[in-house]
Amino acid sequence: MKKWIILVSVLLVLLGGVLYLNTYELKEIRVSGCENVDEQQVIDAVKAKANNTVILYLSNKIDPIEGIPFVNKIEIEFISKNEVSVVVFEKSMAGCVEYMNDYVYFDKDGVILDVSSKMIEGVPCIKGLSFNSWEMGEKLPIADEGKFQLILSITQLIEKYELAIDAIRFTAENEIILVHEKITIELGSGENLEIQMMNLGSILEGLKGLEGTLYMKDFDSDEATASFSNK
Known about the structure:
alpha/beta, 2 domains
């Protein structure tokens, strides 16, 4: 009889625990950190993981949510029994290259992060490059190593100086052309790239709203001047 009492007591405790756990139903998700990522995709992925805040938290610790485009990782924290905070850490994209009808995004080292039909505002697009295949997590397969390193230098400086560059392309003579809104920027061979990019932001600020060509080929020092033509 005593064994039965113990068994029933244990079952009642377990049942009470299950019933109490069920009160941790996921009802609200607060998402932060989304700039390029679709917030609804994050919410859908979180809901698909678990509908219980305790199980969701533990499950994400053991087996983190993955597979959301442009997301590096997701952290989940309790706010209350029925509410969680979801912090999204996006992949740091330095640029993208057009491939067929998609855009292949890469980081500052040229490693491919993601591919999407969506062109993300603020991520410079490299024009005039071609390759036959690519692999996620590998470097862009560009045959011309010199041009590849130059592209990486440009994208790193764009990020460093927080420049709003829409596109990067090269002339037949391999001179660098940048595009900012309706302004075309001619940088030349890239010999003075660091000093050019360091000063570009303040120059563009003075040309806000204008349309034309900014000539910076001979911009080789802080005292140098750039010329602008709106023709």
